[in-house]
């Protein structure tokens, strides 16, 4: 007797196998998408900070950047008080930044030579889950030092320069 087709049992087994594979792929897709957002946000912020630093150097005027949770504003001078409008603002971040020392906002200032004016190196960490948990991305942090800005990977659950492997 010749068989011309598939039995109902064979078709159901194939459908179940496809369903299992799709559920695994969906779980992996979500974590991969989160990893991509973290890396993208760190890279874009790094690029923006480098641009502000270069702008301060080439125009010979100090520039300031204010981080406030998930927002980012660039000022064309060190004047950042109330009533002063930023030169530009970036769209809100998908995930908030955390920084060493905490606080609700952070001002990063580059002097007329393009050098960071802070006393110590400044860590900025992307915090996708609100607890500074370990992320799967290859970069999730930025370290701002006097003459350099570097991307890095956080090695623990704190946003300290010592916990970030700079790249």
Structural account:
The chain is built from 1 helix and 9 strands. It is α+β, with helices and mostly antiparallel strands and 167 residues long. The protein has a single domain, classed as minor pseudopilin epsh domain (minor pseudopilin epsh fold). The chain has a 5-stranded antiparallel sheet, with helices on one face. It comes from Geomonas limicola.
> What's the total helix number?
1
Q: If you compute it from the alpha carbons, what radius of gyration comes out, rounded to the nearest whole angstrom? A: 23 Å
| End-to-end CA span | 68 Å
What is the highest CATH level, the class?
Alpha Beta
Main sheet makeup? 5 strands, antiparallel
Features:
alpha+beta, transmembrane helix, 1 helix, single chain, elongated, 167 residues, five-stranded antiparallel beta sheet
Question: Brief description of this entry?
Answer:
The protein is α+β, with helices and mostly antiparallel strands. It has one helix at 8-59, and strands at 63-68, 71-75, 88-90, 97-99, 106-110, 122-126, 141-144, 149-154, 164-166.
Write the layout of secondary structure elements.
Layout: H1 8-59, E1 63-68, E2 71-75, E3 88-90, E4 97-99, E5 106-110, E6 122-126, E7 141-144, E8 149-154, E9 164-166
Antiparallel strand pairs: 1-2, 1-5, 2-3, 4-6, 6-7, 7-8, 8-9
Transmembrane segments: 6-27
Protein name: Prepilin-type N-terminal cleavage/methylation domain-containing protein
Keywords: Membrane, Transmembrane, Transmembrane helix
């Amino acid at each position: 007797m010749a068989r011309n087709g598939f039995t109902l049992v064979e078709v159901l087994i194939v459908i179940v196998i496809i369903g299992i594979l799709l559920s695994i792929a969906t779980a992996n897709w979500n974590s991969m998408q989160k990893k991509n957002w973290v890396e993208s946000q760190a890279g874009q912020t790094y690029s923006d900070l480098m641009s502000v630093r270069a702008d301060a150097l080439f125009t010979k005027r100090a520039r300031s950047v204010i981080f406030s949770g998930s927002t980012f504003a660039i000022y064309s001078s060190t004047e950042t008080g109330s009533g002063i409008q930023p030169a530009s603002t970036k769209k809100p971040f998908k995930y908030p930044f955390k920084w060493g020392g905490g606080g609700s906002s952070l001002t990063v200032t580059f002097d007329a030579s393009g050098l960071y004016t802070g006393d110590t190196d400044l860590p900025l960490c992307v915090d996708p889950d609100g607890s500074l948990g370990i992320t799967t991305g290859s970069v999730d942090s930025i370290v701002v030092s006097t003459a350099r800005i570097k991307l890095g990977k956080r090695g623990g659950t704190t946003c300290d320069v010592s916990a970030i492997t700079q790249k």
